[in-house]
Sequence to fold (261 residues):
Amino acid sequence: MADINARIVEHELKQFGYVVTAYMPNAFGHAMGGSLGATAKIITKVIAEGLAHGVFTSKDLREANLEIARRAQRDIVQGWRSRLPLKSPPYRRGSDPNKDRLSGKLGETLASESMVQGTTDRGISFLNTSVLAEEARHWYRVNYGAYGHNVAAIRRPKMYPVTVDGHTLFTLQDENQPAPNSFLPVRFSFQHNEFIPHQGPADVEGGGHRAALFTDIGFRSLGENFGPVYRKMLFTKFSRGGMTERFSAKNASVQAVIKAH
Fold:
């Protein structure tokens, strides 16, 4: 499963900017092509059959992937604040909006439609890192943490299983690393909550930053929702007669199981 994970989550430049994309339908087929294929339950096999033989249209797959992406986005929007360190202060707001950091923009940006626009029939995207970097400049340090003398160990993203009908097909894990250590000017001060550098160069080591890892909420959501959403897509296809030809008399047991569900 680790081998699949190495290829499933990619950071790529699309027309919407740099997005994090999980190629889960391909990983599903890869998993079923291995030893799991012989022992998988019937629903898992039928979904794999539909994916392998083009039974599901591009529209079917994009709608399913978009539903999964939006659920992940919703879960992040609802839960990101709870992942911040206790008593975590807001990022300071400066006099120049072009140099602001978060300035209260993170939650608003995470809820933007741009977060899921990279989703296609092949990949699921719930994070647009280009938009985050533009609208909430310090999102990376907040999420992944940053090295520094005040942080003994930085939490790393967890691994989340993708399960269909009780089978763990593959795992998802965000592989981004913490931000490098930051440095402050030799002399600086805070005036009205604004950082004012007085003398450089920047050679005073910053203390670092703990990792909130609110993006893990999204990866966990992908793992939890992939199976139910694709199962629903399968039943919808069957109810409309879209898979009847593939499952004729010799596969009557498959139709019986689908109808029973």
